[in-house]
Amino acid sequence: GGKFVLDTGKIWFNSASQDGGGVYLNSGNFELDYGKISHNTASKNGGGVYLIGDNCTYKLENGDILKNTAKLGGGVYLAKGSFILADDESDTGNIQGNCSTENGGGVYIAGSGSFTMNGGLIEGNGRDTVYNQITTQDGGGVYLSGGKLTINAGSIKANAVSNNGGGAYINGGALDVTSGYIQSNTANKDG
After folding, report:
1. In whole angstroms, how far apart are CA 155 and each of 81, 90, 172?
2. How open is the CA angle 34-40-45, to the nearest 5 degrees?
3. How buried is residue 181: exposed, middle or buried, by Cβ count under 10 Å (0-12/13-18/19+)?
4. Residues 133 and 105 sit within 8 Å (Cβ to Cβ)
5. Which residues pair with 151 in a beta bridge?
6. 13 pLDDT higher than 90
7. In the predicted model, what is the mean pLDDT of the chain?
8. In the predicted model, is pLDDT for residue 1 greater than 80?
């Protein structure tokens, strides 16, 4: 199904009673280039973006997913399909300032989802930016419970959690790191 390109536009201040406060992608391709997905909320999963379709692809090149909130995956919840953060190191895609009430402040990867980071930032997630309180329990930057996380470049930094895994929490799935940085993250317990 189809392709949607958001170039310099905004998807913001939306809410969902279930999943995908800003974007719910079940099929097709979504490309964010210099746009913003911000200040969206979902009662369950994926405050900014929710991907559930086997054949869907989401590409974040130079835009921002920021200040979104959900129970799981404040910025992005990826259950199926693929999410590509930056084509290469020159892209400035950011997943920033998102929070969850449970796990995965920035990104939550489950099922058969495939998240590839070729550049960009996953930064400053896990903290409610209004009240300046840490709301995410585990996996401030990324929570991996299934699927695959591949890091080829970019940084996961300055994320925070109340329990474990300030930068990343691995509870299943596969992690492949060839380059990039996981740095300056905070956990009140371990990791």
Report:
1. 22, 13, 21
2. 110
3. middle
4. no
5. 117, 177
6. yes
7. 96
8. no
Asked if residue 103 lies in contact with residue 74, where contact means CB atoms within 8 angstroms, the answer is no
pLDDT for the residue 88: 86
Q: Which residue has the tokens 């695959």?
A: 148
The DSSP string of the chain is --EEEEES-EEES-EESSS-SSEEESSSEEEEES-EEES-EESSB-SSEEE--TT-EEEESS-EEES-EEEE-SSEEESSSEEEE-SSTT---EEES-EEEEE-SSEEE-TT-EEEEEEEEEES-SEETTTTEE---B-SSEEESSSEEEEEEEEEES-EESSB-SSEEESSSEEEESS-EEES-EESS--
Q: How many residues belong to the chain?
A: 191
pLDDT digits 0-9 by tens, 133-167: 999 999 999 999 999 999 999 999 999 999 999 99
Residue 67 has pLDDT above 90, yes or no: yes
Tell me the HSE value of 109 on the side-chain side, using a 13 A CA sphere: 27
pLDDT the model gives residue 46: 98
CA 37 – CA 66 distance, rounded (Å) = 6
